[in-house]
Structure prediction request, 149 residues.
Amino acid sequence: MSDISILVLHGPNLNLLGLREPEIYGSTTLVQINQTLRLDGEGLQANVICLQSNHEGVLVDAIHDARQKYQGIIINAGAYTHTSVAIRDALTAVEIPTVEVHLSNIYSREEFRHHSYIAPVAIGQISGFGTDSYRLGMQALVNYLRKKN
Ligand code: DQA
Prediction:
């Protein structure tokens, strides 16, 4: 039985994974990433729900709606990582333990990607391991939640 529910949020342009700059983001599609995460969730006895949006407000609403429903959030906010005070404030408001993930290593890329508004309010960040960033993030989050309870 799954006693933990995890919300996986994907931000803008991640719907194009597989097509988009494969030399940076790889050839795995978002559908495949979500399938892998749901399977991993079964192994970890966690219920995994995935959502992608290109709209900041939709992501903010999803974070608000996560209250009372999810014990943890995995977020790849895409470009909003580097711009969105609103997403950071939403995460702070709901107080749901969150892991920030990125497919690429944001620190080895352009300088504007080096700053994350989300990192200071996340329990941790994993960046640079492609799909494994999500998988490692999920494992770390579930371990964190089990230790906490
Ligand atoms: C990304 C990194 C961001 O800088 C970029 O805007 C993305 C994807 C990643 O997963 O590596 O859209 O979050």
Remarks:
- Strands lie at 4-10, 46-52, 72-76, 98-102, 124-127.
- The first strand starts at residue 4 and ends at 10.
